Amino acid sequence: MAVKTRLLQAHERATRATGVPPEEITITVLYLFFGTVWIVGTDQWVGHVMLDDWYVVAIQSTKGLAFVVATGLLLFLTLRRSFMRRRRAEEALHSSYQRFELTARVATDAIYDWDVATGKIWWSEPFHALFGYDPQEVEPSFDFWVRQLHPEEQAEVAQSRQAAVEGDADTWAADYRFQRKDGSYAFVQDRACVVRDDSGRATRVIGGMSDITERKENQQKLEFSQRQLRALSARLQSLREAERARISREIHDELGQLLTALKMDLRWIEKRIGEREDDPALLPVLDKTVEAGEVVDRAIVTVQEISSELRPGVLDNLGLPSALRHEAAKFQERTGIQCDVRVPEELLGLPRDPATALFRIFQETLTNVARHARATRVTGELRTEGDETVLEVADNGRGISPEALSSPKSLGLVGMQERARVLGGTLLVEPRPEGGTRVVLRLPRAANDLNFWEQMQI
User: Fold this and answer.
1) For 201-249, how does the pLDDT look when each residue is reduced to its tens digit (9 = 90+)?
2) pLDDT: is 347 or 363 the higher one?
3) Per the domain annotation, does 292 fall within a domain?
4) CB of 329 closer than 8 Å to CB of 278
5) Confidence of residue 50 (pLDDT cuts 50, 70, 90)
6) d(Cα 138, Cα 119) in Å, to the nearest integer?
7) How sure is the predictor about 179, in pLDDT bands with cuts at 50, 70 and 90?
8) What is the per-residue DSSP string for 240-281?
9) 207, 111 in Cβ contact below 8 A?
């Protein structure tokens, strides 16, 4: 490229000095010189052989010289037009090369040009700055690039590029690790274009390598931080459920026993007062005792409801399928909305925490239906699909709006999605074509494994 530039500069200097492009002048002068020599020489030889006088030979030479001059002028004009076209093409090519060279110099990416036929690769100057190699240490070959790839990715990345070249792809892209001079590896984003001839065969591959090490490390840190936050969320949810179970048990056992004892005492007082019915002064006391007993009965029912809301005993005692059926029956009784749930009869083998998450998501879904859906019917199904446990709940209400789906104020949906993510699953909430809303929770079968759940704890 540098030699080409020097030749073009020399050509420009010569053109400026003579005012005429040197190629046309040189060729035309040579044509006139050799044409003149040929005409004069052949006329002299023919005149000598034919014994013609000088006048006849001179006439023939003059006619020949006139022909040479005329054709020389035509030759000059033709050459000038041809060379002007070539020169414009060379100037455009030079300008293109110059732009490419300047771009390669100022770019922060390592630009390369791979000649597929020879296997040679030209590297731009930023390559040395990015990876620390001196120019003499860099082999201009495809094999050098392959050797610098990380051993774990070498075969896959090299085969991928070779497949793109041998196929019909116009572009190629890959992210991989590339060895620096100090032995460390940089994360690289490589994007390239495949240049092909008229037959479709790849002739060159031109691309650029970006060092994305910092971005990759930040991404890894972010992913690690997200995993920590999810593990923390899982731990907090587990602790919260354990605390709810403890409070539920204490309310049921301690407060329930106290209320039961109080009711028994009130019954004892009621019985003793009833034995003295002949005393009118005790009748108001008897009425108040009966009323107090009724209040205690309502308090016992309330305690049982609060205890059940905090931690349904059926979930711990009879398992998830029975808990879902029980919750659906309670929902139907409380709201008047028909709720049908299909669950497998066999146990799914879910550990306590995943089973609790499934139940809470089902519970929150029914709560959303009661608050917003204006539905008359809800259907639910718990099933397994391949390697996934699936919970699907649908209603025939007015459907959920896109604004509600994306709103940060939809805390119920956010909590449901977070529970799903903690378990490595997905939660889909979408409007149904026939009306209403559909909620689909998918959990990997790995979430059924206690080892998986233990890994999520901190």
Assistant:
1) 899 898 888 888 888 888 888 888 777 776 776 677 667 767 777 777 7
2) 363
3) yes
4) no
5) low
6) 14
7) very high
8) HHHHHHHHHHHIIIIIHHHHHHHHHHHHHHHHHHHTTTT-GG
9) yes
Q: Quick one: which of 139, 211, 218 has its CA closest to 178?
A: 211
On whether both 321 and 458 belong to a single domain, the answer is yes
CA distances from 164 to 109, 113, 167, 362 (A): 22, 15, 5, 49
Instruction: Outline where 148-255 has alpha helix (H).
Output: 154-166, 213-250
Residue numbers of the domain that contains 243: 234-311
What does the pLDDT look like over 262-289, one tens digit per residue?
A: 888 888 887 777 776 666 776 777 778 8
CA distance 34 to 38: 6
Instruction: Specify whether 82 is located in the same domain as 131.
Output: no
**Residue 191 half-sphere exposure, CB side, CA atoms within 13 Å?**
5
Q: Residue 108: what residue type?
A: T
Rounded to whole angstroms, the Cα distance separating 193 from 114 reads 10
Residue 415 CA: distances (Å) to CA of 65, 410, 411: 101, 9, 6
Pairing between β-strand 110-115 and β-strand 202-211 as defined by DSSP bridges = antiparallel
> Can you count the helices (H) and strands (E) in the chain?
15, 10
Structure tokens at 24: 């046309």
Residues 378, 419, single domain; the answer is yes
- Lowest mean per-residue pLDDT among 111-115, 169-173, 308-312, 412-416: 308-312
Q: What are phi and psi of 393, to 5 degrees?
A: -130, 130
Which is more confident, 20 or 433?
433
Residue type at position 130: L
User: Do 248 and 206 share a structural domain?
Assistant: no
Q: pTM for the complete prediction?
A: 0.51
Asked whether the beta carbons of 234 and 456 are under 8 A apart, the reply is yes
